[in-house]
Amino acid sequence: MIDATALHRLVDLTGDRVFVESLLADFPGEVAALLRHIRDAAPDDPVVRRHAHSLTSSAADVGATALATAAAGPEASAATDDVAALAADIDALDVAATATVAVLEDLGGW
C-alpha cells in the first residue's frame, strides 16, 4: 500500500532521509485533517475538490497509491453534484485512509 520507491525518490530529491521520515510521521495527522475538512465541506464542490486534491497529491508524494486513488473519488464526484456518490466516495476514502495509516505505523525502516 506504500510504494517504497516513492519514498526513496523523495530522499534522493531532498537529500534528507530525516526530512522524509518527518513527513511520514506527520502524514497521519494531515490525512485526518484533510478527511475532516472534506466531510465538513461536503457537498460544497470547490471546497471538497480542493481538499481532496491536496490529499491526492500528498498521498502520491509519499507513495500511498491506494489512498491517492481513493482521494480522487470525492474530487471527481463533488463536481457532479451527485450527493449520494460523493458520500460513498468519502466513505471509501475513509476506509483507504484508515488502512494507509495502519500500514504507515508498521512501515518501520522501509
Descriptive report:
The chain is mainly alpha-helical and 110 residues long. It has helices at residues 4-14, 17-41, 45-61, 65-78, 83-105. It is elongated, with a radius of gyration of 14 Å. Helix 2 runs antiparallel to helix 5 (83-105). The protein has one domain. The model has no long low-confidence stretch (mean pLDDT 94). 32% of the residues are buried. The chain is built from five helices and no strands.
Set down the secondary structure blueprint.
Layout: H1 4-14, H2 17-41, H3 45-61, H4 65-78, H5 83-105
Helix pairs in contact: 2-3, 2-5, 3-4, 4-5
Short note summarizing the structure:
The chain is mostly helical.
Q: Give the termini separation.
A: 12 Å
Write down the overall mean pLDDT: 94
Residue runs with pLDDT of under 50 for 5 or more positions:
none
Helix content: over 70%
Characterize the biggest β-sheet: none
Strand-pairing-aware structural class: mainly alpha
Total helix count? 5
- Count of beta strands: 0
Radius of gyration: 14 Å
Identify the quaternary structure here.
single chain
Element-level helix/strand string:
HHHHH
Characteristics of this structure?
mainly alpha; elongated
